Amino acid sequence: MEANPAETSAADTELEKFKDLAYRAAAELENYKRRALREREDASAAQKERFVARLLPVLDAFDLAELSIDAGVPEEIRKKYLDGYRAIGRQVLSVLEAMGLSAIQLPPDALFHPGEQEAVETEEVPGLDAPMVLHVLQKGYRLDGRLIRPVRVRVGVSTVNERGESHEQSHRD
How many CA atoms lie less than 13 Å away from 3 in the CB half-sphere? Predict the structure, then answer.
């Protein structure tokens, strides 16, 4: 008994349809796995960023503590306090660096870059061609290469505007 060509053709078509469904289901499963993995990684990165961001004020406190130790305290005691603050600060920073945190380092006379720096104060400086960082007020940080806090700085700005007027001349009008 020979198979009917019409039945064979219908069976082949049906088989191809089921193969196509199987391939699509397998592809959807792979896409789902990749998407789920990416979502888990994104959630983990966001959680890490929140954790690290909450510890940045602790690092700031260590920086401020160094500055606030009274100069009137005997040098031997002052040095012990400073050494202790610095040691604890290094430990905290070491843990955060292991998580991917890095402080943004600015070279002396750095140009002001609004993408990485926040101008908290400005100061007029004669003869500047471009805004320059005069003083770092608060450290900035990156986490895994992504900016999580800009460097807060005092920026020197030119005393002459685009029209060649001094700051005082442009405000008299």
Answer: 8
